[in-house]
Amino acid sequence: MTADIVLEEAALAPAVIDIEASGFGRGSYPIEVGFVLPDGEAWCSLVRPEPGWVHWDPTAEQVHRITQDCLQRHGRSCREIAELLNRRLRGLTVYTDGWAHDYSWMGRLYEAADLLPSFRLDNLFVLLDDARLAHWDDTRQQVAQRLQLQRHRASADARVLQETVRQLGQKPLR
Fold it and tell me: Which of left, alpha, beta for 150 (phi over 0: left; psi -120 to 50: alpha)?
């Protein structure tokens, strides 16, 4: 893919997904999945943990503020979430800023659902050249402040990521 095509795609607001998790490392699992489509439509759901999913990091809970009790009461099954993702994201390339972790957590979700994704997950940063990547942190912070999204939730995070890519894709290089 040439840099011009990548930047053109970036300016068109890509589909972005974000996953909140029980923590990092071995045994961690997805607890919330959210995405934003190119047209701005967003979706988010808590994930009800599978019986064998026991890893829980209290530090991660302090960040996302989602309790285990909340997941049990309000979470949807892995099957229900995977089916919805497959319907809504079918055929798309969906981007994430935490590709290594999100790929693993998405794999866990789909394995529990006994399904395969109908979409492709890719690293968000392939959409930007090095010159634009150098402005990532500052632009992301500005976008987050401008959007003033109150909750640290997967769909809100996905919206910030999408808008950051869109802004950087339109930004003239200096």
Answer: alpha
